[in-house]
Amino acid sequence: DEMCLTLVCQAGTDIVIQIIPGDEFMRICELKQKEVINICTCRTLGCPVDVEFNCETGCITALVVPGPGSFCFCFWGAGSEYIIPWNCIRQIGDDIILVEIDEKYCCKKA
Fold first, then answer.
1. Other Cβ atoms closer than 10 A to 48
2. What is the pLDDT of residues 18-57, one digit of tens each?
3. Long-range contacts from 87-94, C-beta under 8 angstroms, 24+ separation
4. Sign of the C-alpha dihedral, residues 45, 40, 85, 15?
5. For residue 30, what are the contacts with CB-CB under 8 A and spacing of at least 6?
6. H or E element at residue 85
7. On the chain, which terminus has fewer CB atoms closer than 10 Å, C or N?
C-alpha cells in the first residue's frame, strides 16, 4: 500500500511520485497544495508540509500535516503534527486528499 518514488533518496530537487498505476504522475509540490480531509470526522486537517519515505525502497510511507494549533508551521516549527500513514489515504483528487484516520492516534509531538 505504499506509493513508489521514481527517484532515489539522494536524488536532489525534483522528486516525482507515481500516484496510481499507469501514466499519471504528481510532484510533491503539487501534493502539498491539496487540502487533507478526514472522512471519519469530515474535518479539514490542512495541507501536507512533508512526506516520510523509506530510503531503502524509495516508497512514501506517510504524509505529514501540521497538527492542531500549528500556525505558521514552516516558519517556527510546530507543537504537533499529523503523521498520516499512506494506507490511510482513501483518494487523491484534484484539490483534496481524503484520509481515514483516528486523529488522536496520528497526532504526534513535532
1. 21
2. 444 444 677 888 899 999 999 999 999 999 999 998 888 8
3. 87/1, 87/2, 89/63, 90/39, 92/19, 92/26, 92/31, 92/34, 93/34
4. negative
5. none
6. strand 80-85
7. N
From CA 30, how far away is CA 63, in angstroms rounded? 13
Query: Which of 99, 72, 74, 71 shows the shortest CA–CA distance to 84?
Result: 99
| DSSP symbol at 56 | T
pTM of the model: 0.71
SS3 76: helix
Phi, psi of 71 (to 5 degrees): -70, 140
